[in-house]
Fold this sequence. Notes:
The chain is an all-beta fold. It has strands spanning about 1-5, 15-20, 25-35, 40, 55, 65-70, 75-80, 85-90, 90-100, 105-115, 115, 125-135. It has one domain (about 1-135): Immunoglobulin-like (Sandwich). Helix content is about 0%, strand content about 55%. The two termini are about 20 Å apart.
Amino acid sequence: MLTISGTVLSQNPVSWSIHQSEDKSSISIHAQIESGWHIYSLHVDENAGPASTKFYFDKSDAFELVGQVSEPPSDEVFDENFQAKLRFFENQVTFEQKVKVLNNDTLTGSVVYMACNEDLCLPPQESKFKLKLIPPHE
Length: 138
């Protein structure tokens, strides 16, 4: 497992880790979020204000993405910062991307996310990730 992180304004309430599933059919990208902070869903109305969480995968001949990144269910909650009902995650969340691994190589990419607490929001941050992929037959 590889841990990734970024720093903005010397404050970073989110740490990330990434790993490949045992059956080699997906990757999980886990966010550990400090108490009192949250990050937003993949599905946020662009007019609501906050930046949704977005994943970017560098193209490679080593794998094919299968579908889109998925997230666990979350409740829609009124967000005081944006005065809107939004979906976000507190404490921790694991996103999943199904993949078809074609050969041993490294998956690289990044996640862009916005972390907020009840008083402030940090500007969107980018954390890069890298993971050595193993094909299912190995």
